[in-house]
Prior knowledge:
Elements lengths: L6 H50 L11 E18 L6 E10 L2 E2 L6 E3 L4 E2 L3 E15 L3 E10 L4 E4 L3 H10 L4 E3 L10 E5 L9 E4 L4 E4 L2 E4 L3 H9 L2 H31 L8 H9 L7 H17 L6
Parallel strand pairs: 5-7, 8-9, 8-10, 10-11
Antiparallel strand pairs: 1-2, 1-6, 2-3, 2-4, 6-7, 11-12, 12-13
Helix pairs in contact: 4-5, 5-6
Amino acid sequence: xxxxxxxxGIEFSFTWLFAIIVGAVxxxxxxxxxxxxxxxxxxxTGAAAAxxxxxxxxxxxTSFQEGVTTSIALxxxxxxxxxxxxxxxxxSQKISTSQKSxxxxxxxxxxVGFPNKYIFSDDYEEGREFYVFSKPFEFPxxxxxxxxxxxxxxxYCFIDAPEDIEKELNDLGQENLLTGNCSISNEEMIRVCxxxxxxxxxxxxxxxxQRYVExxxxxxxxxxxxxxxxxxxxNTKIYECQVxxxxxxxxxxxxxxxxxxxxxxxxxxxxxTNTFSLVNGFRNYKDSSDLGSLYxxxxxxxxxxxxxxxPLW
Length: 313
């Protein structure tokens, strides 16, 4: 009995196998190309969103009010990344975003830098709507407006806050910043406890008279209410970096006022303001634990400037 080999059958099977392999390769390449196009588009969209967010914050920096709030609404779930860079003299505020699509978040977009912004938040905040609260930081002259970024879904309850802090928050009217007795609410909240309140169940502890904030087992020191809020709403890394940038800016301004004082003295108008000592204090700044001694000097120079016949600011 002879076995007959069917060469056409072998050729037919090989042709189909080859076609399947080629088709699979083409499909993989098409999927890869589509993914790259989508990824590029998301990155470009994210960079544009980051730039727009920075622009939206501009009105907060031109206000002379003590506290200003606004909101930012985005079309889809978004993560706003807060990157503080203090590698240069005055450092830079960088923002990037990633948006939710296909059940997950895209990679962060290209970072957009702003040399004159100071945002306090966690490493990133997530949501569709965000609240932005701003206060001027004066030390002793105005240094900059500082900005606090929180998602609308993240609620804070300030317990046993000093009367002026409670009044400021109530006047501000920001919906996710609450005061009073939070225990009557069933909502999850970040409990910010001040001096006289119990430490049980507190997420953030504020030693207002001692000028410190305890959060996530870390201690951040502050002077002025502007930095108190900054410590409450940000993590330690962001806080220390942004305060370092603010002090660098304050030193630059103090240098200018010191030169102005010298010019005025040449015109027989002595300001009697020892700005040089403040410049040295700023120059020796290391971290927030140095703020206390610096603040004493700043208040003394503020008093000198207020009674001077030739005020510098």
